[in-house]
Design goal:
Distance between the termini: 34 Å
Strand order of the largest sheet: 2-1-5-3-4
Largest sheet: 5 strands, mixed
Helix content: 10-25%
Oligomer: single chain
Radius of gyration: 13 Å
Order of helices and strands: EEHEHEE
């Protein structure tokens, strides 16, 4: 069973986390299932960038992003070559190391 290591984030997971993931499960779903509330304003429909994550290790093990995801990512704050939308990035057979960016394009958190 693959694992996702979430690097420490000051608000969402200050200590970081190492979580078990199912093959094909999205990075966002793994986080939410384990109490790491990554923003997802469009309810996982690939229509915003609030679930933007950076896959620091294991990026090449995932399916490539689709054109719609790439278009959305162009709007993300702090875009990097290993950026993905958490709602679209599906776990494959390799472990991942994921960074949750400090900022999103949302002016107000959906969780409040």
């Amino acid at each position: 069973m693959p694992k996702i290591v979430f690097l420490p984030h000051p608000e969402l997971c200050p200590e970081g986390a190492q979580l078990e993931a199912e093959l094909g499960e999205t990075v966002l779903d793994v986080a939410l299932r384990n109490g790491i509330y990554i923003e997802h304003a469009c309810e996982k429909s690939c229509a915003c960038t609030t679930c933007h994550v950076i896959v620091r290790e294991g990026f090449d093990s995932m399916e490539e992003s689709c054109e719609l995801e790439d278009d959305m990512l162009d709007k993300a704050w702090g875009l990097e070559p290993e950026s993905r939308l958490g709602c679209q990035a599906r776990v494959s057979d390799e472990d991942l190391v994921v960074e949750i960016p400090k900022y999103t394009v949302n002016m107000v958190s959906e969780s409040q």
